[in-house]
Amino acid sequence: MTVRRLRVGPGRSLLGALVLLLLVLVAAGCGGDDVPEGSVASVNGDDITQAEFDHWRGTVAKSQSQPQPGMPPQATPDPPTFQRCVAAKASQPLPKGAPKPNPAQLKDQCKRDNDQLQRQVLQFLVNARWIQQEAEDRDIDVPDAQVRKSFDDQKRQAFPDDRKYREFLAQSGQSEQDILFRLKLDLLVNEVQKKIVEGKGTVNQEQIKRFYDKNRAQFGKQTLPQATEQIRQTLRAQGEQAALRDFVGKFEKEHRDETVCAPTHLVPECKNGPKPPPQPPAAPAGTGAQPGAAPAPSGGAPTGTPGRPPSGK
What we know:
By secondary structure, the chain is mainly alpha-helical. It folds into two domains: 7-36, no CATH class; 37-66 and 74-93 and 100-261, Orthogonal Bundle (Triger factor/SurA peptide-binding fold). It contains nine helices and three strands, in the order αββααααααααβ. The protein has helices at 14-28, 50-65, 83-91, 103-137, 144-158, 162-172, 176-197, 205-214, 224-256; strands at residues 39-43, 46-49, 259-261. Strands 2-1-3 form a three-stranded antiparallel β-sheet. A hairpin with a 2-residue loop joins β1 (39-43) and β2. α3 crosses α4.
């Protein structure tokens, strides 16, 4: 169960609150920064277990290993020996004139691939917890019936028959529950974004005229009445984008401060992990950005764990 916050209600003694806090700290491992045994990370008390991590790692690895038309088979990391990975890499054709790597070099490549795969999977799972907890804090919920309806609609569009869908599940390594999980995350993100931009795209006529006067040259022969709707959409997008950029920065910092990872599974999303890379400056609003298109939280979904079934046609 996720422990959100401790609140001292009216009439509860300070001593009682301190005793409760002490009990919580002891149960959490004397300080709250330890990841419980059998888990790879903990997000505000919600643990990501080793079993959950292994499940998604296997799913992504299987999906990435699927042969693509005209491409050699992909080498899937198989720690700790990496024997299959080394053999697969050794069988891949080399560019003309390239030296043939020795087994030790191939094993190093496999280790790097494995590190990257593990980072992708953990970032995905941490971000999933962030999204779920942000939605909970905002009293946002997507009912299972809504998720199922969206899934059924997309499945009908993507696959001509159930046999194609079953083939996709077998090839991707996903279960139907995995896809429903990803789809629910997508729907939660959409609902959170709606909350963030609500009321932030309001534009009045004075703002429209000011924009028109300041950017008169780009409208050519268009009069103000002719350009009004175009300007309104641009200014609405600017307001929504500004709100979303402000939210994402706070969202990542707040949730990172509540995320601790095991020493063997450190990613930038962990407060005890490596420092996140600097983000590139945001593009100026009104330069073609789509309204409501929020920057994705770092990490995102790893390759091979789609939120929607790809086309099976």
